[in-house]
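All the exercises in this workshop are built on plain-text protein records. There is nothing in a record beyond a sequence line and a structure line. A learned vocabulary of local backbone shapes supplies the integers on the structure line. The question running through the whole workshop is how a given chain folds. Here is such a record, shown just as it appears in the course material:

***
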Amino acid sequence: MAPRTGRPPVENPKDIQLKIRADKKTIEDLEACCKALHTTKSDVVRLGIQKVKADVDAKK
């Protein structure tokens, strides 16, 4: 039997989709951050969530 082909499974799959409503200014800010960091919109949103969580945890 041939070995399995394709990509190996990832340790932490990102299989949950999130949909938000945003105004034009927010989207422009998001795209500016993406260009500055050379990353995707999803990565910038994840970074933002991590930073806010760190701030919340620091206040506890």
The radius of gyration is 17 Å. The chain is about 55% helix and 0% strand. The longest helix spans residues 41-59. The CA atoms of residues 52 and 58 lie 10 Å apart.
